[in-house]
Amino acid sequence: METIAIIVAAGRGSRAGEGLPKQYRALAGRTVLGRTLQAFASHPGVGRILCAIHPDDRALYESSVAELDPALRRKLLAPAAGGATRQISVRQALAALPPGDGDAIVLVHDAARPFVEPGLIERAIEAGVAHGAAIPGLAVTDTVKRVGPDGAVCETLDRAALRSVQTPQAFRRGPLAAAHARAAAEGEDAFTDDGQLMEWAGATVYVVDGDSANVKLTSARDFEEAERRLAGRGESMITRVGTGFDVHTFTEGDHIWLGGLRIPHTKGVLAHSDGDVVLHALTDALLGAIACGDIGTHFPPSDPQWKGASSDRFLDHAAKEVRSRGGRIDHLDVTVLCERPRIGQHREAMRERIAAIAGVPVENVSIKATTTEKMGFTGREEGLAAQAAATIRMPERA
Ligand SMILES: Nc1ccn([C@@H]2O[C@H](COP(=O)(O)OP(=O)(O)OP(=O)(O)O)[C@@H](O)[C@H]2O)c(=O)n1
Ligand SMILES: C[C@](O)(CO)[C@H](O)COP(=O)(O)O
């Protein structure tokens, strides 16, 4: 009998802090979703896999899929658009499955649980076949209280009967799809897992042994812990630093581009592109950190297509080059060297713009500025310059 895995990956990961949605963040060089997909795609009991993804995440999804062996990629069906809640994402994934046997087993799994082991997938499938509805659960080890809105304890629950539940959760396809459709029709939209939805629909749901290692990455701390765990398995990251420097000559004009912003000025800059020294220095710093040439290697000034180009593209490209090697940008630091314009008033907007282009939290972007005390070419206001340092983390093997 066929087993189909639905991987729900349409969330925004808001509790995991700023940056990419958590399922697309790298853990020791591979994305969370890539790791989750690998676990299911390499399991001999899983036939096909369908992900529910956010419509904005198509490119991120494709990069995660690219981490899989080509032979395993064949198990993937085209992704479905997820919805505003996990429940809607599962429903839409079910609706996107090709027609098929209602008795097939559907495993519903959170993309955010990349540590799922083959043994757990196996247990879920077996229990799904045996019972029609089965979920993994762990005994609760803390004492659990029910607490009122005023913070007062109402009751101490009998923890012997409690389980903290995980995914993959296994159900027969027909009843699961029917329960989701009924819940949608009746406006029942607050189920936090499919087990609860099936209980509501009248099914008996059985619990099999879960796995304490199968954590759902939820907070930034979970990511730190996950990295420590992977390092313990020999999958570790190393820090690399790259630097960049760029200069442009002032010419006649009424504005310059700096840090991705159009800044009114009494001069312009001579440049093939938009002449943004901050973004150029950052681009070189990132390329330096991965030892992948420089901005001229990737965007030759002799190539007419880069004439007048917005430098956002250069930085975006370099950030993608880092990520495609499994790297993560930890910090970006820039010093602008010029007498004018004054940078202070633009600093915050610049940090936000750079953070958005490079896909890093704004807290990890620093902009500093200095004059050169009227000495040298910047002091004479013949041009302006920027230097940058990028700190990234890369898988040790890359
Ligand atoms: N609208 C949603 C919400 C969640 N999920 C998925 O459901 C799983 C479990 O959800 P959770 O850990 O809560 O993820 P997020 O919703 O992304 O996290 P947060 O609540 O912190 O934003 C994740 O793999 C998530 O991508 C989904 O597919 N569609
Ligand atoms: C499905 C789940 O992972 C089981 O523990 C959990 O209910 C998901 O909850 P979230 O609020 O969507 O993280």
TrEMBL record:
Residues covered by region (2-C-methyl-D-erythritol 2,4-cyclodiphosphate synthase): 240-398
Reported cofactor(s): a divalent metal cation
Binding site for a divalent metal cation: D246, H248, H280
Gene (UniProt): ispDF
Keyword annotations of the record: Isoprene biosynthesis, Lyase, Metal-binding, Multifunctional enzyme, Nucleotidyltransferase, Transferase
Site (Positions MEP for the nucleophilic attack): R159, K216
This protein's record includes keyword Amino-acid biosynthesis: no
Region 2-C-methyl-D-erythritol 4-phosphate cytidylyltransferase, annotated ranges: 1-239
NCBIfam families according to UniProt: ispD, ispF, PRK09382.1
Name listed for the protein in its UniProt record: Bifunctional enzyme IspD/IspF
Similarity comment: family membership: In the N-terminal section; belongs to the IspD/TarI cytidylyltransferase family. IspD subfamily.
Site (Transition state stabilizer): R15, K22, H272, T371
Superkingdom, natural source: Bacteria
Domain 2-C-methyl-D-erythritol 2,4-cyclodiphosphate synthase residue range list: 240-392
